[in-house]
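Hi everyone, sorry if this is the wrong subforum. Our group has a chain we'd like a structural model of before ordering constructs, and none of us has done structure prediction before. Sequence below.
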Amino acid sequence: MAEEYPADFVRWLLGVEAPQIEVLKTELTLEPIRADSVTFLQTANQILHIEFQTLPKSKTPLNFRMLDYSVRLKRQYKCPVTQVLIFLQETDNAVVFTEEYRDDTTIHKFEVVRLWEQDSKIFLDNPALLPLATLTRTDSPQSLLSQVAQKIATIPDREQQQNIAGCVEVIAGLRFEKDLVHQFLREDIMKESVIYQDIVQKEAFKMISRLLKRRFGDVNDSLMTKVRNLSADDLEDLGEALFDFSEVADLVAWLEQQH
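Answer:
Right subforum, don't worry. Here is the predicted structure as tokens:
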């Protein structure tokens, strides 16, 4: 979402209009740090580092990670860095109320947003932020979910509607049962979303990878790359075909038939 609609996230978190925004790679120099929940947006004169966390658990303490990112970004891009750590799931853990890293020689500050404390209005009024609305402050979570569904129905662009609906399904799952989400959102719209399809494909690949390893042991990288590039439907077909395979050569032959 942050990479698809960077201007909306810059407007929300920085309160400025940025005519040109570049989405930076999430791998930094030195020892690489990679995370699906990290986005770096570069405007004309600064970098916005957004990090999303479902829970305050981290192998490296989150406040130290923020310091580490800040130093690396400043070294590589040589401009000011604004950091926002966004917590998605409500918790009273002290980590979500920590807005600095401090030791004997260093004090580093960053912003923290706890979504469950945020007014839902600004999220409901912006399609790019709409999926996050499901996690915002409310006295009636089901009514909020209903409002989100109504807003999705008013998005005129079909592709955008599908993608926003797919994001809503994923993010709303942090707060609501899946069946309840499906009561409010049209399942056909969600399933047409490229985001939904991507998630389904990745989950199917994980399952097939486990089955292949169990059946044949380690499979070489080139074959696994071909398997990874299969669609979700093809991965489902492969799962059924595996029952007839007796050796890796059968897998190779099956993959060749797909092309």
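For your construct planning: The CA atoms of residues 173 and 181 lie 8 Å apart. The chain has a mean pLDDT of 86.
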